[in-house]
Design brief:
Putative xylanase fold; globular; mainly alpha; 152 residues
């Protein structure tokens, strides 16, 4: 990288513009492969978090602060293993707000926080699943194949 390009990059970063320039477009959600009652659990928790977020205007907070607020609302959610494995043949975005493991606790909090900023309400469980898909799958697209999932 030459000095001039480095200087421009640093100047853009200082202005908070580099991330905006480097961001990729959000892909549309993949078509549903499994019924909503299979891939989404915890509707009452979902709407309770959304209601609080709207009352307190979380949408305008930075992503980190939004994620922390959502995560705090999920404290006390029972811990269970294997919350991503819901079907033996079909891979699909899944969000379970009734039970989480360490990864899905983080992932659900981040997805809810992103959803609040990505679009205005009213919010639906499918909106949360779209944000989960963007985080969990290669290029933000679930192909229905297990190998499209990112394995962190």
């Amino acid at each position: 990288m030459n000095f001039k390009l480095l200087s421009i990059s640093l100047a853009l970063a200082a202005l908070g513009q580099l991330g905006a320039l480097a961001q990729k477009a959000v892909p549309p959600p993949s078509p549903p492969r499994l019924p909503i009652n299979t891939v989404f659990q915890g509707e009452s928790k979902f709407y309770a978090i959304i209601a609080k977020a709207e009352r307190e205007n979380w949408r305008n907070l930075p992503l980190g602060e939004r994620t922390i607020r959502v995560a705090r609302e999920m404290i006390g959610t029972p811990y269970v293993n294997y919350t991503l494995e819901i079907d033996d043949r079909v891979e699909s975005p899944v969000a379970n707000l009734k039970e989480v493991d360490c990864w899905t606790y983080y992932e659900n909090a981040l997805a809810l926080a992103r959803m609040l900023r990505y679009k205005p309400g009213p919010y639906r469980p499918q909106d949360l699943l779209h944000m989960v898909e963007i985080e969990r799958y290669r290029d933000g697209i679930c192909t229905g194949n297990y190998l499209s999932r990112m394995h962190h």
